[in-house]
Structure formats: C-alpha cells, structure tokens
C-alpha cells in the first residue's frame, strides 16, 4: 500500500479544508489518508525541509494565508502542543481544533491556566504509530482498526464532536470517548510503561556477547520491538505523563523484586508458587487484551516453514485463501544463515485442523500447531 492510498470506504465525512500543523509521522499520515479521500489538506511545519518532504510525498499542499480551515489538527511534539493549540484557536476562531498528542491532561491544564477559550477545542489521540518518525515514514493506513480517543467535555457541541469523530472514522479508526485523566492513566499502562520496559530490556543487549544475541527468537523480538523508538520524543511524552507512569513502575518494581527474591532461593517454601503465580497472572492479563476488531478472544497459532525463495510467502497466503482460512495476524522469524523462515499464522481455533491438513496436502511443512 502506498503512502497516499487507503481502502475505499465511501464518501468522506470530513469536508472543507483541513489544516495540519506538524508534518511528521502522524500529521503526514493523516494528510495522506485525507488527500486520498479527496479532502483539501494544507500543511504547516516549523521545519521547511520537513514540510517540503511531506508535500513531495503527497500529504497535502503548503498552507497559505487565505486558507479557511473547517478543522485544524495539531500534530506537534508534546512540549509545544499547548502553545500551538492556543495559536491555532486564535488564528482560526471558526474552526474546530484538535490535537493528536499522546498526553491530554497536561496541555489542557496549561491552556486553562492561560485563560484560553476552549469552546472549539477537542483533545484527541490516535493509538497508532511506527518506530520511526518523520514525513518519510508516514502511511495512510496506520490508523485502520486502531482506537482514536476523543476527550470531549460539557462545553463540546455535538457538531464539533462529529467533526473530530468523522476524521477518525474517515481514517479507519474507532473513536472512543474518555476524559483526559482516564486517557492518561490508560496510555501509561498500555503504551508508556511498555516503552520503558522494552527499552530497559533491550539496553541489556548493548554489552551482551554476540553469541547470545544470535539465539534471539520471536519472543525477545516482540518484547523489544518498540525499543527502536526516538528517545527525544519519549523524554517529552514520559515527562508529560510522569505521575501515572511512576505509579505503575513502582508496582512493577515490587512485582520484579518479589520474583527476584523467590529465584534467589528457589527451593524455599512458596518460592515456586510466587514464580508460577506471576506467570499465571500474565496469562490472565494477556487473555483480556482485545483481539481482532476489539473482541476479547484468543486465536490459535500455526507455524509454517517457508523456504527463503521469492514468492513463497505470497503462495502461502494464496493457498490459505483457497482453503477459506482468514489470517488474523502474522509474525515472521528468519534466523541469520537459515535457508527458511517461520511464519506464525494466527487463525480462529475452529479452522486449525482444516488449515493444517490442507497446507500439509499442498506440501507445506508445519513446524508447530496448537497442542503440539
């Protein structure tokens, strides 16, 4: 899928001109998606090079002084988001202004402290992104199927709310209403602390022996994938949401200390139970995570060996389609020097045996399946 292509979903709910302030990953991605739907998108960025790059890639056109936007989307770093929101509300008093910052309470407090009229401001946050930022990494499809939190208040008009929720729906996201405090506590748990945990674990690899790292499989890669994120951005995000992050880190530190103490004396009474209970509680937590389309259900995994030759993965998907098997998720592992890769395919449990039998009959080697 190209940067400016999104699946067709009918006529756009978003109308008029949309002004996007900040042409980085999220801003340019929104621009690509709206432009593909025929919406007039104007871009602004303090970096002329970033702006030109986003325009060259097709995320929108440069802003002009006579633009009259119906919607303004602020997509700037957390440390300047309140300042930019204030300026956009003053410059475009008839527009609805939203932002996509990952912290909602701190900028809201700053705006209220400055006495800014927030009648046409609605904070929002798409739970979407990539490990790499900038206009060059922008994609129109990163919002599809993702939650998009909308923080309305008692002053928010239904017409303004419809504009922001319409934006989310146009981009394929699912709007969810939360108050700013609930949002910030939620993202601390599911986004901000996981970033720190992944970064701290991956930091142990810096001095690890090369031979140890060659043993890395999908588990450690999944656990540390987001450790590739930009430090400069995360310093701002974590600083803006420090209190709920610290609360969770303190509890996590207590849990880690309990497991470490148990493993120091694994034969002591209750030590094995402490470890087992920790793993079991993790099982229960994972089972609560939403599956595809937000449903709390688990999928079964089939691991297929795929030869390291062109076209094999495409052939696998084609034959799964012939078997009427819908792939809910896919993970790939390819160890250095290996002549094959492992494709871990998530499917609904009811189709596992039919998929395995059908693939085996077509010559595929199954590395593992449920209950192996």
From TrEMBL:
- What Pfam families has UniProt attached to this entry? PDH_C, PDH_N
Q: Which pathway features in its UniProt record?
A: Amino-acid biosynthesis
Instruction: Outline the extent of the Prephenate/arogenate dehydrogenase domain.
Output: 16-293
* Signal peptide residue numbers: none
Q: Which domain of life is it from?
A: Bacteria
Q: Which InterPro entries match?
A: 6-PGluconate_DH-like_C_sf, ACT-like_dom_sf, NAD(P)-bd_dom_sf, PDH_C, PDH_N, Preph/Arog_dehydrog, Prephen_DH
Keywords attached to this Swiss-Prot or TrEMBL record, sorted alphabetically, are:
Amino-acid biosynthesis, Aromatic amino acid biosynthesis, Oxidoreductase
The cross-references to Gene3D superfamilies, in alphabetical order and at most eight, read: 6-phosphogluconate dehydrogenase C-terminal like domain, NAD(P)-binding Rossmann-like Domain
Q: Which family does it belong to?
A: Belongs to the prephenate/arogenate dehydrogenase family.
UniProt-recorded name of the protein: Prephenate dehydrogenase
What is the organism of origin for this protein?
Answer: Microbacterium kribbense
The organism's lineage?
A: Bacteria, Bacillati, Actinomycetota, Actinomycetes, Micrococcales
